[in-house]
């Protein structure tokens, strides 16, 4: 009888034990890839260790997925770092289609095509070749609502994560219009590129704006994840009564200027509710005569209350930027021990090869930062800030000076040719103001560090960052003015070109490589409708120029296509006459009367297409964040034809970022040679590599399903002369 009574009690106890054991099952931190950069703290780290240095040589392709929407002219890209949640991989395609795949098999679950839900691009088939670096996942507390947020140009969509359909109750019938909620009307280019973050039920977003003086404001905004209602806004160009307003000489700056935007991502300390946001430069990159002062909060690392948008602290990395030194990637949150004290830190990489580190609770530098005097002789009207901050540690991960002895000596002929070109550019000291004599930007306009960001091992406190070491020439010219005696469409169009296009395509329309293509004889490639579509909608990394008025656009077409009068273009006819929005007459002066422009983005390349500097041309670097020491630097990427000639591995320019694993490896693609590699994280030795169908100019993701670890990379190519691709490749043991 006693045994009979004990049996139910025993069963109950077993159930309680099993329930407690199940409830206490601990999910290994960093075992998935649920956010851009792997986690909201932005460290691109995985605790998975099935793949190790001992077995990585056995990696093979598990699946490949293609969306079949690359640009056959090899201009499209795909920079997406996909995310994985509950066994589903979410990512985007070259034409910004959003997909959900079985993360283990690559089988498509659903596909959302924004072109089928959008009529704002007038049917332009090229309008969706834009850039997306990732997506954001959110679910409510009980998991009943699951959404993917991602941007397609100026629209940030809310997509049901299970069905792949727009959430019509969100925002404007399923999306946010990023040109709204900026405090002033703007027709200038605005687009989402790198995803923001979600804190509780708050979606925090940044955006990309144009580089010109009529750029839209780059304010940081936060929206309700359920409704799309604006929750808060942080003005990156301060308004009256806000901290930082007093740093502008022009008290109406907030009404006129744009930029200071967060295009490169952000990181979140979820426990403290603090979001860390890097910003870019003020619009009008290379001449600041109209924007005197430090220009807060441009080129700054911001620490904001994620729930309210209130500023906690900031640090400006570049004062009064004249060199396009945007902060290029989301910062890394890491805990270090210094002088026996544990410090929760934030590390920010830069284009010029420095790492700035702060106590993330109060903004106090971890290592001393010195304000160094810099050259101040500048173009008339410019007022250069006399100092720039330089950290004493960590050691820089890029060379800081391009001297005559650094000019390539690959062959005597090439050396002589490139030395002569080198000597045509007079200034080589970092932070020399832009001039007509020219100056070397080194590392180049694309870094140094770039949008791929850095990876950090939270156990060893070692940061891994890839770097391009390519000099670019910055040469300023007078912006040609209109000929008062020539009012022909071509002459007026030439003026519009000089105002809006000369910085990328050059005074002679020759461009510079595939990133900035030649416009010479563009009429042989495109008709007036097509050229107008590119100007209006943008393409790939080229922003749209919707702010150009219909009459100005008509004249610009006449100039580009070499026709006496631009023929009627149906898209122009539909546009409102007052398309250009200006706040004041002074703003119009800034846009139309900037006295100087940069004569193109000019990489220092020899006639064979190789960098004109001695190698390495691209590197992977390991930096100890505790000591600040550079542990190792190795070439990243290879020109096979040079290696066959016995030239040591040179590295290549690289776009994309690394990830680091507990298994002892750093995985990275990013190189022009279209390979993905694994490096031993202790030594920097290459321990595995595989050929990709197109260059992986993106950051890989890694995750485990049923104990099996996978590595996935987007293969979009399309930059620096690479062919375009539209596939994702997955590797596993």
From TrEMBL:
Cofactor field: pyrroloquinoline quinone
A single Gene Ontology CC term: membrane
Keywords per UniProt: Heme, Iron, Metal-binding, Oxidoreductase, Signal
Gene3D superfamilies xrefs: Cytochrome c-like domain, Quinoprotein alcohol dehydrogenase-like superfamily
Alphabetized Pfam families for the sequence: Cytochrom_C, PQQ
Cytochrome c domain location: 488-564
Listed CDD domains: PQQ_mGDH (cd10280)
Signal peptide segment: 1-18
Top-level taxon: Bacteria
GO molecular function: electron transfer activity; heme binding; metal ion binding; quinone binding; quinoprotein glucose dehydrogenase activity
InterPro entries: Cyt_c-like_dom (IPR009056), Cyt_c-like_dom_sf (IPR036909), PQQ_b-propeller_rpt (IPR018391), PQQ_mDH (IPR017511), PQQ_rpt_dom (IPR002372), Quinoprotein_ADH-like_sf (IPR011047)
SMART domains xref list: PQQ
Homology family: Belongs to the bacterial PQQ dehydrogenase family.
Protein name: Pyrroloquinoline quinone-dependent dehydrogenase
């Amino acid at each position: 009888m006693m045994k009979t009574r004990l049996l139910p009690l025993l069963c109950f106890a077993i159930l309680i034990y099993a329930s407690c054991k199940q409830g206490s099952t601990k999910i290994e931190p960093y075992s998935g890839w649920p956010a851009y950069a792997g986690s909201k703290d932005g460290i691109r780290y995985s605790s998975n260790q099935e793949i190790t240095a001992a077995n990585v040589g056995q990696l093979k392709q598990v699946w490949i997925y293609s969306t079949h929407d690359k640009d056959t002219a090899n201009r499209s890209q795909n920079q997406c770092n996909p995310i994985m949640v509950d066994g589903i991989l979410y990512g985007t395609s070259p034409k910004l289609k959003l997909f959900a795949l079985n993360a283990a098999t690559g089988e498509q679950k659903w596909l959302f095509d924004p072109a089928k839900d959008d009529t704002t691009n007038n049917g332009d088939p090229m309008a969706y070749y834009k850039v997306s670096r990732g997506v954001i996942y959110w679910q409510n507390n009980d998991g009943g609502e699951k959404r993917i947020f991602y941007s397609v140009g100026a629209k940030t969509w809310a997509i049901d994560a299970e069905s792949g359909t727009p959430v019509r109750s969100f925002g404007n019938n399923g999306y946010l219009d990023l040109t709204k909620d900026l405090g002033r009307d703007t027709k200038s280019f605005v687009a989402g590129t790198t995803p923001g973050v979600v804190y509780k039920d708050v979606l925090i977003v940044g955006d990309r704006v144009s580089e010109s003086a009529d750029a839209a404001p780059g304010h940081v905004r936060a929206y309700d994840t359920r409704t799309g209602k604006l929750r808060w806004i942080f003005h990156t160009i301060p308004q009256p009564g806000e901290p930082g307003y007093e740093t502008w000489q022009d008290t109406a700056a907030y009404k006129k200027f744009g930029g200071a935007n967060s295009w490169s991502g952000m990181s979140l300390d979820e426990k403290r509710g603090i979001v860390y946001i890097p910003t870019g430069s003020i619009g009008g990159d290379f001449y600041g005569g109209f924007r005197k002062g430090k220009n807060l909060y441009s080129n700054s690392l911001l620490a904001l209350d994620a729930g309210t948008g209130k500023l906690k602290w900031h640090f400006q990395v570049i004062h009064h930027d004249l060199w396009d030194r945007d902060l290029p990637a989301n910062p890394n949150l890491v805990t270090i021990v210094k002088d026996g004290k544990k410090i929760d830190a934030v590390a920010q990489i830069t284009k010029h090869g420095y790492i700035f580190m702060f106590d993330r609770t109060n903004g106090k530098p971890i290592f001393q930062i010195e304000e160094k005097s810099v050259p101040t002789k500048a173009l008339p009207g410019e007022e250069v800030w006399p100092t720039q901050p330089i950290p004493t540690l960590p050691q820089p991960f890029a060379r800081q000076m391009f001297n005559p002895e650094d000019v390539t000596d690959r062959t005597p002929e090439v050396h002589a040719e490139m030395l002569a070109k080198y000597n045509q550019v007079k200034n080589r000291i970092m932070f020399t103001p832009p001039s007509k004599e020219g100056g070397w930007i080194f590392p180049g306009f694309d870094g140094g560090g770039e949008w791929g960001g850095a990876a950090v091992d939270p156990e060893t406190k070692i940061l891994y960052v890839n770097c391009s070491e390519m000099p670019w020439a910055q040469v300023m010219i007078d912006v040609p003015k209109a000929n008062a005696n020539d009012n022909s469409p071509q002459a007026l169009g030439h003026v519009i070109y000089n105002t809006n296009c000369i910085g990328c395509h050059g005074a002679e329309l020759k461009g510079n490589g595939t990133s900035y293509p030649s416009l010479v004889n563009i009429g042989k490639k495109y008709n007036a409708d097509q050229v107008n579509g590119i100007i209006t909608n943008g393409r790939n990394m080229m922003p749209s120029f919707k702010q150009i008025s219909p009459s100005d656009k008509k004249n610009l077409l006449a100039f580009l296509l070499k026709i006496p009068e631009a023929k009627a273009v149906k898209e122009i006819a539909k546009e409102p006459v007052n398309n250009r929005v200006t706040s004041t007459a002074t703003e119009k002066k800034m846009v139309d009367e900037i006295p100087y422009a940069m004569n193109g983005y000019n990489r220092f390349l020899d006639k064979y297409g190789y960098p004109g500097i001695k190698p390495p041309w691209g590197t992977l670097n390991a930096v100890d964040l505790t000591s600040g020491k550079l542990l190792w630097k190795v070439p990243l990427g290879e020109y096979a034809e040079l290696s066959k000639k016995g030239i040591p591995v040179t590295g290549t320019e690289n776009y994309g970022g690394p990830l680091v694993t507990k298994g002892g490896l750093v995985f990275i693609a990013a190189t022009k040679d279209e390979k993905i590699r694994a490096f031993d994280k202790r030594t920097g030795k290459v321990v595995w590599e595989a050929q990709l169908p197109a260059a992986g100019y993106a950051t890989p993701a890694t995750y485990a399903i049923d104990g099996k670890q996978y590595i996935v990379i987007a293969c979009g190519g399309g930059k620096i002369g690479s062919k375009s691709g539209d596939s994702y490749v997955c590797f596993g043991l």
